[in-house]
Design goal:
The chain contains six helices and five strands.
Length: about 120
């Protein structure tokens, strides 16, 4: 799994992503606010084909940003994980959940995901 430049891709191509402008429209905020949410650890973004994108699974119709995502990001950042490592972990299969941590967050099992993140980070 590499991108066009030959460097390892952060996420597989099957992970659906949205351009920042689409995220802003979905959240009813300006694009600059989405960039601020990324800086503040409420969201994570990555580069794909030269564009900054956000995984679509980070958003839901109920709350905007999936509940528990920002707390999980904070725990892992505080534990020394890079944003790329956090993205990989959120989308990696975990048989004990089952599924991926991001799928568990979307299923409102954020406390379990955060417990796992705390165990990894410390």
């Amino acid at each position: 799994m590499t991108d066009r430049s030959g460097t390892p891709a952060v996420l597989s191509d099957d992970v659906v992503t949205l351009p920042v402008a689409d995220v802003a429209q979905s959240l009813s905020v300006p694009v600059s606010r989405v960039h601020q949410l990324v800086r503040d650890g409420q969201l994570l973004s990555l580069r794909r084909d030269g564009a900054t994108v956000v995984p679509a699974d980070f958003l839901d119709d109920e709350h905007g940003i999936v509940k528990g995502l920002s707390g999980t990001i904070t725990v892992l950042r505080d534990g020394g994980y890079s944003d790329d490592d956090i993205l990989r972990w959120l989308f990696a299969d975990d048989d004990s959940l089952p599924g991926t941590p991001v799928a568990a967050l979307k299923a409102k099992r954020h406390k379990e995901v955060k417990r796992r993140a705390q165990a990894m980070a410390f």
